[in-house]
Amino acid sequence: MIKLIGHVRNFSSSPSLNVIQNVTVVGGGLMGSGIAQVAAQAGQNVTIIDVKPELLEKAQKSIKSNLVRVAKKTFKDDAAKAEQFVKDSFDRIKVSTKIEDGANVDLIVEAIVEKLDAKQELFKKLDDLSPEHTIFASNTSSISINEICSGIKRKDRFGGLHFFNPVPVMRLLEVIKGDDISEATYQAMMAWGKSVGKTCITCKDTPGFVVNRLLGPYSAEALRMYERGDASKEDIDIGMKLGAGYPMGPFELADYTGLDTNKFALQVMYEKTGNPVFEPIPLLHKMVEEGKLGIKTGEGFYKYNKNKFHYRKKKIIIDINMKHELTISGDASGKDIDVGMKLGAGYPMGPLELADYTGLDTKVQVLATLYEKTGLAVFKPIAVLNKLVSEGRIGRKSGEGIYKYESK
Ligand SMILES: NC(=O)c1ccc[n+]([C@@H]2O[C@H](COP(=O)([O-])OP(=O)(O)OC[C@H]3O[C@@H](n4cnc5c(N)ncnc54)[C@H](O)[C@@H]3O)[C@@H](O)[C@H]2O)c1
Known about the structure:
By secondary structure, the chain is an alpha/beta fold. The chain folds into three domains: about 20-205, Rossmann fold; about 210-300, N-(1-d-carboxylethyl)-l-norvaline Dehydrogenase, domain 2 (Orthogonal Bundle); about 310-400, N-(1-d-carboxylethyl)-l-norvaline Dehydrogenase, domain 2 (Orthogonal Bundle), CATH 1.10.1040.10. The chain contains 17 helices and eight strands. The chain has helices spanning about 30-40, 55-75, 80-90, 115-130, 145-150, 185-195, 210-230, 235-245, 250-255, 260-275, 280-290, 315-320, 320-325, 335-345, 350-360, 360-375, 385-390; strands at about 20-25, 45-50, 95, 105-110, 135-140, 160-165, 170-175, 200-205. Strands 3-2-1-4-5-6-7-8 form an eight-stranded mixed β-sheet. Helix 1 (about 30-40) packs across helix 2 and helix 7 crosses helix 10 (about 260-275). Mean pLDDT is about 85; it is low at about 5-15, about 305-325 and about 325-330.
């Protein structure tokens, strides 16, 4: 399965900053594999570099299955085209454990471990190995772009490209401008972001950039509300989904991202800004110390059980995972399940109504990512849901999903 390349790839490297055709992604983990996938899907040649061969193999597997899913959706009436799309995209991706194999390209996106010294060391090596025109970018969520590039010569060809998880699904890309970035590099990054299907927004090198900076106080205040006993976490989650239209409540989101990551992000923003809104939250620290990190450890604000569907009050997981309610749909109709959850569990919207409202395509993608990440059977996408999506019945926005709607 693994396709390691044994020599430096001879790209017809374009000296123009505007034409990015050959891309290297360093770090083939969760984010790196997603970035590689979207670039390959867009017709670019991609090399993934990782220090661990087993992670390269894992990245290839996950990219392949994601490509199959995308192909089914894009070419639903043409199996041959779908197959060709998967083959072509996958064939554009090469992998290697040697950094030299990825140096001679137009753009290098770094998605390695979130540690300043590791990122600095990597870019110093690449600065010596890469040709003049190569642009460097970091996918860091919390480290300063200026600090990462402080030791290299090509500061004018360096910036942040902050993707969101899961990369193939999330449409946003934050393009971060360090102090020394040139206009040409910035424009090339914006154009590249667009070429891989993202909507780009621009931000200076400020802690948390746009989205995490705004999500930080929101998530911190949700935790404090719960800590103070102002409202239950379930109600806060439902409130933000149904009242503010957020696809996930703050506690679901924290469990999904990982409480350790949340704690780290708040800590960095507090250290860098001194803003009391980011001050440490005792509840969060306690939960991290207890190893309650969210989905990845089986427990965070909610419980996730490997073998048995287990959820306190059965509220939010039902909303996330269609499996349970559709599995039991032989016992009760969809309508009855919705009514039951509304009247019996105080759910303001039934889980199936909510799924249609959010979009079944989004549900399938989120479930697939959760399943891949956690291995929990509860997240395994189910046939009936995949079928609805492949038929274009994706919920309210298409006029039909689990229910039919008069107008879209
Ligand atoms: N996970 C998220 O939701 C998210 C979102 C946005 C940005 N980010 C950022 O993306 C980066 C990667 O995060 P992730 O979640 O994909 O991490 P991850 O742990 O899934 O993947 C990191 C990969 O980098 C590899 N690696 C480590 N050091 C390396 C080196 N020197 N050279 C080559 N490979 C190396 C590891 O083997 C691993 O496969 C981090 O900077 C993180 O802050 C993460």
